[in-house]
Amino acid sequence: METIIGTKKNILVLGAGYGGLRVAMRLEEQLRSMPDYHITLIDQNQHHQLITQLHEVAGGRTPAETIALPLERVLGLRRIDFHQARVTRLDIGARRLSTDHAELSYDYLVIALGSETNFYGIPGMQEHAFTLKSLRDACLIQGHLHEMLSAAAGMTAYSDERREALAFVVGGGGFTGVELAAELAETVRDIAPRYGISPEEPRVAIVEAGKTLLPGLDQRLVEKATKILEEQGIDIVTGIPAKAADARGMLLASGKRIDTRTIIWTGGVRAPELLERWGLPTGIAGRVKVNEFLQVEGHQNIYAVGDSALVMDPTTSRPAAPSAQLAVAEAEAAASNISAEISGDKIESYVPHMTGEAVSLGPDNGVAWVGPVRMSGRPAQWLKALIANRYLWQTGGLELVRSYSGIGKGTLGRDFPECLVELRQEEVPTEESQAQRRAA
Questions:
Q1: Hey, which of 5, 117, 280, 368 has its CA 20 to 30 A from 358?
Q2: Could you tell me if residue 359 is inside a domain?
Q3: Is the pTM of this model over 0.85?
Q4: Is 434's pLDDT higher than 50?
Q5: Domain co-membership, 172 together with 103
Q6: What is the pLDDT of residues 152-170, one digit of tens each?
Q7: Tens digits of residue pLDDT in 82-92
Q8: What is the rounded CA–CA span in Å between residue 424 and residue 124?
Q9: How far apart are CA 20 and CA 328, in angstroms?
Q10: Cα distance between residue 104 and residue 83, in whole Å
């Protein structure tokens, strides 16, 4: 294993998601006049994935390559060393981090490792459900849709076996679950005739343990979104949690069983379990406890942002929601505070603030709010696309927008093998190829 310990002061950023990438880029801009500081961004993938658009890839509307931004291209000529590897160990006392390729020392550490799916201990759910946390997940779901339709085409009409194959169940009615369900409903309707199946035969359902869909969203928008989903033919079950899952369906706490060969679990997230193993202070859903400056409690030189961080909102005394928008805002604040510490300036408190939200409900529908304005239908969908393109512009300027602004413009039912081509590029390289890349 290679040991990387230089004479410069090192800032390590763990994770190249929305929070990690932004904090690394902002620090590079703010510390250009301080060549003694070296920034290293660490992620197991060589792409920055636009997680908020995964549902579009799962449904086949958006090509996989549109939401996978090569980090080499995004970082360009910035003074940021990208280290592609899996993080394995953190020694807080020695200020050292181990990956599967190297050991690195740090003066400042930023934890932005995102989140993983929370199965809440539901028996069988982890073993039998798909998830939607990565490009790989989205491509697997896309392929599975075609597999189920193909299998159903060879089954006896109106049989129980065929109904199971054509039932698609989304567990969780939050943003991800609702967007995915709407996308799936549109997709299976459009591609079913290719397999000789009536567009009305496939069924999509959402199972949400809470009383309503989209918890935390404005009630008027929740009601509007629910109506749109029902008009799309989606079956909605609320107020009843999942109790168990197996290869042939989902059992609800009410005793009702939903027979299906497709369960996609989006019912919750938690911080990566390794954060607890590292001995960091954690709270709700394993998220790392931070103070008002986004510093990890008890560790002034370690910051945490995004889904990995337990950021408390002082106005509500509740944890800030895990979202891309807040991850970016937290990254901006953390970068400013690290830069201020290095410069000997005063660091500033961070207060979570949402400027708006947009929920996609298929290619031509949605609900959204910006400030006091509420909207639905195509305007909401346009806003969702505008937000995505604005993020691209902030991340890589006009060139990135021109190259990757195909979000929402793909063709429904894109073939599974084409999606898999992108997955092969996500594999972590061998130690030899990693060394060659760093040397180049």
A1: 117
A2: no
A3: yes
A4: no
A5: no
A6: 999 999 999 999 999 999 9
A7: 999 999 999 99
A8: 28
A9: 8
A10: 10
